[in-house]
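Re: beginner question about structure tokens

> Can someone show what the tokenized structure looks like for a real chain? I only ever see the sequence side.

Sure, here's an example I had lying around. Input first:
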Amino acid sequence: MDSQQNSSLNSMFLTVKTNLEKIESLNIPATSFEYQELVSKSLYLLEKCEESVEKLALFSSNETIEDYQTSTLEYLLIPILKSNLLKRKIENRLSLLEQSKDEVYYHKITNGIKFEPVEQRKIKIDRFKAERELKNRIENLENKIHITQQQSLKKLDNENSENNESDEFDILDEVDDMDFLQRDHVVLLLALKAKLAIEELISIKSEVDLLSKIQNHSSFDDERNRSGGSDNRTEKRGKDVSWKLDTHSYTSGPVDFNTRNVGGKLLDSKGKPIQTFVITNNRTLIKEGVFKPGHSLPTKTLDDFIEEEFARGNVITGGGKEPEPKEDPDDNDEEAINAETMKKREWDDYTDDVRKGSGNTTNKG
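And the corresponding structure tokens:
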């Protein structure tokens, strides 16, 4: 029974990997039916894979990575693959992002130590370099595995029907070498996915915060439109006339336009002031309204940004061939000197014969 479940698990996982390769290679919008259907099918298969892994009890907290077989290690990729597919879904975006993040690592990231922008930038660059190194090592291993497989197949084809004992031992050694290569490949792939998962979790956190703010803002606007429409119109009418000196009848007393402590009628029928009033300076109030807590300050300089782009490999360097510098004529080359002299004489003759501006006939008024 366990062997049947294991083979079923292996076939489902292979199907998921094939679907992921199709998804990456599709040149269609992520909102299309074909794209979303393939994502949904892959998610369903991954959930079945998770159930099979739990039933077979393949992993235990008491064991280390050396205790597992190479074929079993690959199933450790199921959570990150599922998270990747959940991010590709479009309906109920906020709830899908909540499912996509791993709570343990998520809280460690969000509630962890706060770094300065310079330290964050250094950590990000170091993580990017480590990811690039892992990708190069994985690519080299994949090429090595492919070459080893081709050599093994070629050797099997060249063997005669009469095999001796030494040939059998050679085949066993090649199988062991292939197993070591595949194991190293899976371990490096797990390390790369772990680093990519950190970037995914940081991206998810930013998107969750943004979607939560949008959702709260939209619900607040809906509630305000339902309950406070008339009050808003009254307040707007008051603001429209707030610049006028005399809009109502006031009681006696000075005027402070910052606190709106207005008293008495300010102007008579001829427009002359009746009482003294104070117009305070709004410069301080305007200054205090700048750079509020919600204002985003720059976290890096332009030089830091350019350096980071170079580290990411986003800057294209080089270009076409530079034009060859024009050689100065040799004083001893009489033919070149005569040709240059004749060219200048022809130009002088042309300027003598053709009057300046004679060709401009279209703009004459």
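Each token stands for a local structural state, so reading them left to right follows the chain. The chain is about 65% helix and 0% strand.
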